Amino acid sequence: VADCIMSGRDYADVFKEYGRKYPDAGYGGMFLKWIFSETAEPYNSFGNGSAMRVSPVGLAFNDLDRVLEEAKKCAGVTHNHPEGIKGAQAVAAAVFLARQGESKETIKNYVSCKFGYNLDRTLAEIRPHYVFDVTCQGSVPEAIIAFLESAGYEDAVRKAISIGGDSDTIACITGGIAQAYYKKIPHNIIKRARGLLDPDLLRAIDSFTAKYV
Fewer CB in 10 Å around end: N or C, the chain? Predict the structure, then answer.
């Protein structure tokens, strides 16, 4: 997504390019099939992949309406189901508002009113009954709640993982909002993550960060 924003290239083309270059990255089955298909048509998904990948949109654009429009575009090349689009828009909006210095209460109120997510639950209430759920509607609200209860970036990611379920995706969503809100990621986490990425991915991250973050 960051690459698309910087280059202006088509989301579907770039997603397929990256997916084929990194085929063993744990994609959902429908997305994996789409990557290697000859079609660029979306497949009506409401999985949480649309929300997981959208945070660069909230960082790059300077108007909330533009953020919502771009999040819909980013999601819609695969996740064109209304819930798939809604999940992406909710996360992008939360990232944008966090980046603008809005309070957690403002972020919570906007997302709950605009998208109808129940953000009044607590993690303590969620954990005992939470199950693996790859849908936007079953993981995006939980990811946002983890951010709302957090005291810092690492704390946010740890709280997201503590829910269980689709932990890597939930933590990715929470972490995107937390980075925008807390303005930094601890150096030890950055160092560890950079050690796991190849030069092409690092170039994309560094170019986007230099321009937008």
Answer: C
Show the tokens assigned to 183. 């303005």
Q: Which residues, including other chains, have CB under 8 Å from residue 151's CB and lie 6 or more apart?
A: none
Of the candidates 103, 95, 108, 118, the residue with the CA atom closest to the CA atom of residue 212: 95
In angstroms, rounded to a whole number, what is the distance separating the alpha carbons of residues 103 and 137? Answer: 23
Alpha helices in the chain (DSSP H): 2-7, 11-21, 29-35, 49-52, 55-60, 64-76, 82-99, 104-115, 123-126, 140-148, 153-162, 167-182, 187-194, 199-212
Q: Residues 6 or more apart from 97 whose CB is under 8 A from it?
A: 64, 106, 107, 110
47: which strand partners? 135
Kindly report the length of the chain: 213
Kindly report the pTM of this predicted structure: 0.97
pLDDT confidence of residue 46 = 97
